[in-house]
Amino acid sequence: MVRHAPLSNRIVLSRPCGSVVSNFGSAELIWIEFSAFLATLPPFVKPTITLAETTAPNGANLALIEHDGDYYLQADGVQFQSSFAHNAAVELSRMGCAPLRSARQPHLLFAGLGLGFTLAAAREALPQKRAVFQVAETIEAMPSWHRKFLGGLHPGQVDDPRLGVHTQSLQAAFRKQNEGFHAILLDAEGSLPIEGVTDTKGVPHSSFLHRAHSALKEGALLAIVCLADHKSFERKLRQVGFDVTSEIVPTSHKGKQKQRSTIWLARKGSYQPRESN
Hints:
This protein is α/β, with parallel strands linked by helices. It has a domain at 83-268: 3-Layer(aba) Sandwich (Rossmann fold). It is elongated. The longest helix has 23 residues, at 18-40. It is built from 7 helices and 11 strands. It starts with 17 loop residues before the first helix and ends in a 9-residue tail after the last strand. Strands 7-6-5-8-9-11-10 form a 7-stranded mixed sheet, with helices on both faces. A 4-stranded antiparallel sheet has the order 1-2-3-4, with no helix packed on it.
């Protein structure tokens, strides 16, 4: 007598019909070919997103761009400032603020917000509660861009009670401040040309340097990043009455750091040593 396993325990194998085998083989071949095709494609490229656009005072189309976590400012499609290469903007503040660490109420003027790195470095360098960070911003939309899109770069920056952003020119800021500034910071290399301040190459005009000199307190600093001939620009600053020094720093804070930027520190008069008790 032959005993059979219960039906629930049987495994029944059946060979598919020829047409099914043929179709299965074709599908497998198609998948192999498709996989080989995918291997030839370039790596996935993350999209470039235009977050906002406006018209700059000089008529250029100004755009805020985001790509793979980095932010850029472009004018007519040409990038002039980025969150990837901001070392010069940070060093501008670090050097410009160094003499003011012991000041009780340092008053600084910034030529525009840009992407906010110069301002952020100054806020870190000068934690005094009575410090004043004044920004002369000629692009009306820029403060709202910072609130809406750039809050992650500098958390809490636009809500700092020491910060005042005014839609005005540097010249207007000079006229309204009678007591004088402790420092004026201008990142001309990372900005669009500013009417009455810089030429088309981003080099400050002599007339602006004279007005800046008058707007500073005695012993205060005009700190500038710009692409200028060293000898001629130093001579121009000295003719205005500044004591001048310069530093060359990497433009970017990461990467190969081959590009260099020049920071000019123009002092009005000289600092007097503090009397010791």
